[in-house]
Description:
Blueprint: H1 4-10, E1 17-20, E2 37-40, H2 49-66, E3 70-73, H3 76-88, E4 93-98, H4 108-124, E5 127-130, H5 133-141, E6 150-151, H6 170-179, E7 187-192, H7 201-214, E8 218-223, H8 231-237, E9 245-248, H9 254-259, E10 263-266, H10 275-282, E11 287-290, H11 295-298, E12 305-308, H12 313-324, H13 327-344, H14 347-363
Parallel strand pairs: 1-2, 3-4, 4-5, 5-6, 7-8, 7-10, 8-9, 10-11, 11-12
Amino acid sequence: MFLAYQINALVELYDVSIITNLNGNRSILDNISNKVNIINLPIERNVYLFSDLRALFLLISIFHKNRFALIHSVSPKAGFLTSIAAWVTRAPNRFHTFTGQVWTTKKGISRWFLKLLDKIIVMLNTYILVDSFSQQEFLIKEGVLSKGISNVLGRGSISGVDINRFKPSKIHRNFIRKQLNIKDDSLVFLFVGRLKKEKGIFELVEAFKSVSEQHENVTLLIVGPDEEDLKWELISNLEPCNELVRFLNFTKTPEKYMAASDIFILPSYREGFGSVIIEAASCGLPSIGSNIYGLNDAIKAGKTGLLVPVRSSKFLKRAMLKLVNNNELLNEMGLNARKRAINYFSQDNITLKILKLYKRMIKE
Length: 364
C-alpha cells in the first residue's frame, strides 16, 4: 500500500482506522502497523448500484459508530461514497485527495456526469488536496474547484517516494538482466503500470518497433497486470521484434526492474501526478511521458526527461531516439532525476507536511 509510510507515522500520534476492500488479499497490509484498525468494506472499483448503496450505508454506520475526528478519502468512487457518508454523519474534518480524473478522456453525458460527481465531492468535504499543481489548475479551469479551497503538498505527489528503496543498484541490475536474458550493453526502456489502452501502451509498442528498426541493441520491458487482455494483441503488433520485448505481470518490487533499466516511459492519456515517474527518477532513470497535467509536474522537461504530445507514437519515437543517440544527455537527465526526487519528493518530506496539516485541522 503506497500510503503505508504515512499511516505508520500517523498511528504514533492518533488512533487510525483503514477502511478498504481487502478482496481476499490481506498482503496489501503487509507493511501496515498492527496498531491500525482494519475495516474490510466490500466496495468495488467499478459502478454496481446495489453494491454501492450497501457500501454507502455501511460507511454511514461505521462513521456514526466511531465518530472519527478526521476522515480522508482517496480514490474516485470511494471518495464519492465516503464524502456523502462523512457529511451525513457530520464528521468535523472531511478530506479528499484528487489523484486524477476519470472523466478527462470522456465525452458527452459520461464526462458531464463524472465531472458532476467530483463537484459533489468538493461540495461535501471541508478540505481538498490535489496531488499536482497542473491538476489543480485543470480542476479550477473546469469549474470543479475554486481558488483557495485546495492545496498541493510540497511539489506534488500523494505519498512521495522512498529514496532508500528506489535507488540505483548494480546487484538488481545484473540479476534482473541475467534472469530475463537481457544483454549487459542493451539499452532498456521500461513501462510499469496496468496494461490499459489509456496508458498509451499501443503508442509505446508502435514507437519501440520503429526504434528497434534503427537500433538492434534495445529492449522493451513491460511490467504490470493485463487488465484489458491486451498482451496478445500487443505481441502481434510488435512483429518482427518480439524477441526484444519482455512482458511481466504485477510485481511488488518495481524498483528491481527500474534499477535494471535505462529509460522510463509513461505515454498515458491521463494521470493525476505519476508517482511511478518519481520512483523511476529516484532510481536514476530519465523519463519520457505525455505532456498532460500531472506528468508535466513529475517530469522537468529537458532536465529530468522529455515530454511528448499525447497519443503520438511519432513524437514518442523521436524522444526515444533522442536519448538512445545521446548517451551524455541520457546520463545527465538520470542524475538530475535522482537529485530532484531526493530534494523534492522524499516520503519523509510529504509525510511531515500531511502530519502538520492533520494536526492543525484537528486542533482547529
